[in-house]
């Protein structure tokens, strides 16, 4: 049996996701509301604040890595218009995901 060690933050995230799934499945949004609010507050406090410059650097590094992994096995599809479409899609996806789950600096 493979035992995975979790940090306190990972354990809190897992607990939060589980409680939220329970509420949705049971349509019982009053139950565990206080616990969910406390977990959200604790997770918000544990997140380090990233400067705008750091956020741009983090975004660019993820975009470069994703771009390389996408276009390396597809050399025929690698062109200026395809790259432009990739950038636009990446930016829209990054913005949407950052609104739900802010990016974290590497550990």
Q: Rg from C-alpha positions?
A: 19 Å
The count of strands amounts to 0
The percent of residues in helical segments reads 55-70%
Number of separate helices? 4
The profile of the biggest β sheet is:
none
Order of helices and strands: HHHH
Strand content: under 5%
What does this protein structure show overall?
This protein has 107 residues and is mainly alpha-helical. The protein folds into two domains: 39 residues, no CATH class; 49 residues. It contains four helices and no strands. Helix 1 runs antiparallel to helix 2. The longest helix is centred in the C-terminal third of the chain and has 21 residues. The relative contact order is 0.09.
Question: Which keywords apply here?
Answer:
107 residues, mainly alpha, 4 helices, elongated
Topology record:
Layout: H1 8-26, H2 33-46, H3 52-71, H4 80-100
Helix pairs in contact: 1-2
Structure summary:
The chain has 107 residues and is mainly α. It has helices spanning 8-26, 33-46, 52-71, 80-100.
